[in-house]
């Protein structure tokens, strides 16, 4: 099996040494990465780092403003690093007006990115599954009013709606990748195998559906690379 990692998991390393962080996650056995920022490095430099450590890009967490306000530059950068999956990591969608505006943006730029060979997606937290104060439902509207790909963060889905495996099945045609992640039901994250989220069930479902899994572990206790090691060791234990 091959696994990826969201580089936010090792942000205590990437902020000062992206090259070193990529080297270390490669040494741990990760085969692909999902970026959360490039820390001032050129696309050519990032591509060279990836090539040096035998890593692929499964996607990037990229703010929607970068797509909407700097479309050509963003597309060019992502083509150079070999990324075909731009994912919005979250947005302020706490009322219907903001949600409508975001959906207009998504419906404008999703086909434009598709024309460039790049998919456009959205990554959930827990609140998207709960009604806003005005009653609007973020995740439902993103699913039914756009053609965005849905990157399911299975832990936050567990916190927000309790059924990540059911969600994976329901949205299977919209999923390019998932975050496999752990923690308790109150929103306190942990490395894989140390929380109460249904990680083993998510793992089995992802295998059955052929969906790539990207590890995310957010607490950096004692540091991000230690958590990254715990997570991949846990995933390897599930292979048995």
Question: What does this protein structure show overall?
Answer:
The structure is a single chain. With 240 residues, the protein is α/β, with parallel strands linked by helices. It has a single domain (4-239), classed as TIM Barrel (Alpha-Beta Barrel), CATH 3.20.20. Helix content is 47%, strand content 15%. The chain is built from 11 helices and 10 strands. It has helices at 11-14, 18-28, 43-53, 64-69, 71-81, 96-115, 138-145, 154-161, 164-170, 199-209, 224-239; strands at 4-6, 32-35, 56-61, 85-88, 119-123, 149-153, 178-180, 182-183, 189-190, 213-215. The strands form 2 sheets. An 8-stranded parallel β-barrel has the order 1-2-3-4-5-6-7-10, surrounded by 6 helices. Helix 2 packs parallel to helix 11, helix 3 (43-53) packs parallel to helix 5 and helix 9 (164-170) packs parallel to helix 10 (199-209). It is globular, with a radius of gyration of 17 Å. It starts with a strand and ends with a helix.
């Amino acid at each position: 099996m091959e696994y990826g990692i969201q580089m936010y998991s090792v942000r205590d390393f990437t902020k000062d040494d992206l090259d070193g962080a990529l080297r270390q996650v490669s040494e741990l056995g990760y085969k692909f990465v999902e970026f959360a920022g490039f820390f001032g490095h050129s696309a050519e430099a990032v591509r060279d780092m990836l090539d040096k450590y035998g890593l692929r890009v499964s996607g990037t967490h990229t703010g929607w403003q970068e797509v909407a306000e700097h479309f050509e530059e963003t597309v060019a950068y992502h083509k150079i690093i070999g990324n075909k999956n731009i994912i919005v990591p979250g947005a302020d969608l706490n009322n219907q007006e903001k949600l409508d505006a975001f959906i207009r943006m998504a419906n404008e730029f999703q086909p434009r990115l598709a024309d460039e060979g790049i998919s456009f997606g959205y990554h959930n937290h827990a609140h998207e599954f709960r009604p806003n104060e005005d009653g609007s439902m973020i995740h439902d509207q993103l699913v039914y009013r756009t053609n965005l790909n849905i990157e399911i963060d299975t832990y936050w889905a567990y916190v927000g709606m309790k059924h990540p495996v059911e969600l994976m099945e329901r949205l299977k045609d919209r999923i390019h990748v998932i975050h496999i992640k752990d923690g308790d039901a109150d929103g306190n994250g942990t490395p894989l195998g140390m929380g109460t989220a249904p990680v083993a069930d998510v793992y089995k479902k992802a295998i059955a559906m052929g969906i790539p899994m990207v590890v995310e572990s957010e607490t950096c206790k004692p540091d991000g690379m230690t958590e990254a090691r715990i997570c991949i060791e846990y995933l390897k234990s599930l292979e048995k």
